[in-house]
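[Solved] Which block belongs to which protein?

Original post:
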Amino acid sequence: MIQKTIITTLLALLSGAPFLKAQTIDTTSADTLISITDSLVWELAKVIKTELKEKNSPLAILMDSESMMVIEKDTYRMVKRKRKLKATIEETKQYWGYNSQIIDEASMKTIPTSIGDQSNYLPELNNAKSVHWGIEQQWGFNLIRGKVRVFTGIRYDIHNYRFQNNYIRLTQDQPEFTATDIDGGPFKPSSVDKSKVVVNYIGIPVSLGFQDKPGDNSKFSAKIGVHAGYRVRTHTKIKQSGGNVEKQFDDFNMNDFYLSPFVNVNYGDMGLYMRYPLTNLFKDGQGANTQSVQFGITLKMS
């Protein structure tokens, strides 16, 4: 009974602010009694701490050089918690593939001239060399258990349209896209190795994605979405057999905006993608109705 009374009294004393051990005793001061009391309580707490430990009591006293506190042992348990899912993940990818075109034949026009046939549509492409490259930085935001996410980011694309006929020339500052075949004409150069037009876009992709595991450790993933882009530069490139290169910069009546649904399927660090644009390659009324389709592989960089 006495022991319980002492413990109860001590717990009541300890329920307030931490105690400070007395460092010195000033016998001429009114603080002497307080200092002595503190020292006695401190020593009594040490004794009770030892007794509680020996009797395996549910209570325990924690002490350091300046403070003490009474706890219930059960409140100090190791609890295993599941790792919290990342709210966002980052992806950096490269896209390598090919360009192909679909032209509305009803909108195609060809006009014979003294320098060669002129057309308002993109000439036949060398499909093996009409390559597309892009780099994309995306952020995925968790929707459902880290497996379903919405993605957005920024992307830069370079579309190369390599002509099958190296003697194709594009004409600048025209009201309509103008491609001229100078093969056999009076201005035909002696030998040409390459003729192409290059279009650069910067844009924002938005997609809904699924992955088999949450976080960054998924193997299989798939996305479906839409990419909106803006044309930042267009130029032609003519390379002659002697090594001379000629470039011309103009919009060549290309559409300033680009809107394309896409689908990506990935396994590990590699995948496949395809994009089919909703917008025409040329500005409205300034060329034949043409869609440029891209397909190829993706390579994960991070």
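(Second protein starts here: sequence line, then its structure tokens.)
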Amino acid sequence: MKKIMTVLLGILLLTPAVPKAADLEPEIVLRNGVNAIISVLNDPAFASANQKDARKELLFNKAESVFDFNEFSRGALGRNWGRFSENQRTEFIKHFSRLIANTYIAKIDDENFEDLKITYTKTEMLDATKSGIERADIATDVFHNKVMTPVNYRMMKKKGGEWKIYDVKIEGVSLVGNYREQYRTRFNDSPDKIIQEIKEKISQ
């Protein structure tokens, strides 16, 4: 799954960033987010080795404008979300987001994406939820190392908010679902213990 997420982030970084006139709003938002991330990668101010940590931090900040880490965290916890207090949820989101960044975003430099190409095959506007949340499903085909992989981005827009990614399906497998399966059997562990484990992983 780490390798898959690394490629996924590469997709975000290398997707053609100029929107077509016919693109629907979620796809345009996705492409604009890519522009912001590419600008960091191409900035010569971050080219030296001693700027690697600063660039990683900035990349994480840019990723926050594309991903809804709140929904990602809630989906990852699944039924466990109800056991967390508001403060514990805030702590979990804060550290879980950082864990994702440390585990995956930091690996961008170690992956070669020169041959990576992406094709948008379909952007489908889904029915809004009863609470008025707009949703979209953006299907793509990713070509990397002579292999084609279908990747679907699930995006949502809350009232007064912006379009953001809340899940990604790679070959039909949900990234949020993958994490949710890991936490599914953790009902005997306290929320504080789960949060502490994430903190320890971050410090490793």
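Accepted answer:
You had them paired correctly. Confirming on the second one: Residues 86-103 form the longest helix (18 residues).
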